Amino acid sequence: MLYLESPAGVGFSYSDDHNYATNDTEVALVNFLALKEFLRLFPEFSSNQLFLTGESYGGIYIPTLAERVMEDSTLNLQGVAVGNGMSSYEMNDNSLVFFAYYHGLLGDRLWTQLQNACCSDSCNFYNNPNPNCTDSLADVQDIIYSSGLNMYNLYAPCPGGVAQRLSVERQTLVIRDLGNSFIQHPSSRLWKQKLQSLLFQRRSVRLDPPCTNSTPSSLFLNDPYVRKALHVRAAALDWVICSSEVNLKYGRLFLDVRKQYLKLLSALKYRVLVYNGDVDMACNFMGDEWFVESLQQQVEVQRRPWLYDDVDGRQVGGFVKEFDNISFLTVKGSGHMVPSDKPVAAFTMFSRFIKGQPF
């Protein structure tokens, strides 16, 4: 198992020139070169079967890396798996509004306003120019991101309690918005302008994902004895859960990765798994299901429950639909971090995927 901290500046990774500005294309190349260098240094692993996996923004990282890896015949690529991934900004935004309404978050009054302002033949919650639509969507964003709900797991409590989207703590500007949703909306552009203005005024900035307790991991990983045991170089920055420097300078070039998936699938030899915890609102299951359906692959097995065994006996793990060389799978009751929320179900899912067994 090889864990790759990327882009540079994330985790304990660092840049010798302290330049942490990068983008999707550059990250894919650097990740590919890092993988090649690892196998050069450890050639005993070069013939092993290779699976590329990631979650969240890994929905961009993994397909763009796979596109490069599949063109190198020295790498024994077998498949890719992406969990709760950002596969399409448009589908993620559009589906999130439906997700929020049908999970009881919006109410009939706001839903009716959205239907009237944003929907004609179909609903466009992504880049709708109607000002009435954008006003209603601003209310949706407030409910999802600013009301105290845990966007990573709707039914989980919010560690640390309800916090502001932006605050100042001990002279540090704390941002609790990773900027991955509704990026085409006027309110998002105004928010980004406000953020840039505040960043110009302050040197110290911290990026904290909402409803996430990173204190235990931060204390552990920044302990000098732990850093020494992990052979972390002195040049590495302190470990933080999210790097504000990387995030705020990052260039998002791919708004969807349909081209990369179709290229993988056209080879007819790679296994592809897209899986989602079904109560995540950061990258919701419906958006990724729509994305997989949009690839228009031949259906092999219609949507059905998949099962696993735990201490209480056989359980429903979620639902799965299988196509030629790609499967879409949900994990029941899990949020954004499937292995953390549902470890037994996740282990079963990964084991079947890697071994090529039916879900």
From TrEMBL:
Any GO MF annotation of the entry: serine-type carboxypeptidase activity
InterPro entries linked: AB_hydrolase_fold (IPR029058), Peptidase_S10 (IPR001563), Ser_caboxypep_his_AS (IPR033124), Ser_caboxypep_ser_AS (IPR018202)
Keywords for this protein: Carboxypeptidase, Hydrolase, Protease
SUPFAM superfamilies: alpha/beta-Hydrolases
Highest taxon of the lineage: Eukaryota
A Pfam family reported for this protein in Swiss-Prot or TrEMBL: Peptidase_S10
Transmembrane stretches, start-end: none
EC number: 3.4.16.-
Family indicated by similarity: Belongs to the peptidase S10 family.
Function: Protective protein appears to be essential for both the activity of beta-galactosidase and neuraminidase, it associates with these enzymes and exerts a protective function necessary for their stability and activity. This protein is also a carboxypeptidase and can deamidate tachykinins.
Subunit annotation: Heterodimer of a 32 kDa chain and a 20 kDa chain; disulfide-linked.
UniProt xrefs under PANTHER family: LYSOSOMAL PROTECTIVE PROTEIN, SERINE PROTEASE FAMILY S10 SERINE CARBOXYPEPTIDASE
Identification of the protein by name: Carboxypeptidase
Species of origin: Salarias fasciatus
